[in-house]
Amino acid sequence: MRHAIDSLIVSTELDNYSPFMQSIMYKKITLLLFLILPAFSSAQTIIELKPGGSVRAKTIEDYKAEQKMKEREEADSLQYADNLLRAFNALHTDSLAEAERLFEESLRLRPHAPGNYIIRHNLALIDLARGQYIRAEKKLTELIQTVPNYYDARLTRAKTYLQLDRAREAIQDAETLLNTDELKYQSHDYLRQARFVRASARYRLRQYPDARADLRRILEEDPQNLNAAVLEALTLHQLGQTQEALNRLNLLLTRDPKSVDVLLARAELHTSLKQYALARADYDQLIELHPNDPTLRTDRARTLINLGEKSAARRDLDRAIELGLPRGSVQSLYNLTRTK
């Protein structure tokens, strides 16, 4: 069931760029613009710090030098603000490279600006979107050490730990959030995300009853939560309630016949039950929805091999390689397609 679980976890990461998160981004812009404009001093005296220095009145040259410094700081602040606006717009259009460049340039312009923790979090999110989980975890850990109460970063790190197969650490971060009194009076969605991370980590650790308890809590608060519903179905299967699991997935598909997460979970459930024809039907639908996904081609090839359709399996494997999958990663499947 690993593929289906990874799909659910990734979908929670993609929420970082959902319309909800985009609205959060613009709130962040407002906060950053509030933080970046420096308050300039208007001192009228100079204190010389060299040996034998003294206090003296400012000269015209002092005022000129100070004015140049102010102008430079103001220019840097304006450029910093412009970079941030363009960076968040780039994220909105999935231009990750451009957003990364603008965020990093902003940090160079004003390395000590008070709002930089938001920029550093977004740089980690970009790494996460690219699948660079180790880089993301390093940035998030450094950020949390600097700003321990920045809960967005801790939630993102918990999700990153799941991608790195560090389930116990994911649970620790999730429980830190769930046990923070301050968050209990804020967004319920925020705590549901933390609870889902813990449920996913418990599933990874085969703590199925505990995972289901978390998922039931989520679904009681949010009955339409698709990720929780799919993971609960997979958990039921692991608890020996396979027919109930299939019933749950079938019901979800009556509501949304093109749900990738549900189709993928059902295909893998059929495969685990050796119901290969049914699994193939689900993979056919998935590939129709996402024809350029090499992993789906590989999954269907494996199913076709089990059905004895070796030529069709080879065609799927060939297509997966055309789509960028390394041949070495599927060579063992190619070997199974050879005719004796």
UniProtKB/TrEMBL annotation:
Q: Entry's PROSITE patterns?
A: TPR (PS50005)
One short Pfam name that applies is: TPR_19
| InterPro entries per record | TPR-like_helical_dom_sf (IPR011990), TPR_rpt (IPR019734), Ycf3 (IPR050498)
Keyword rRNA-binding annotated = no
Keyword terms: Repeat, TPR repeat
* SUPFAM superfamilies noted in UniProt: TPR-like
Q: Note the SMART domains from the entry.
A: TPR (SM00028)
Q: What is this protein called?
A: TPR repeat-containing protein
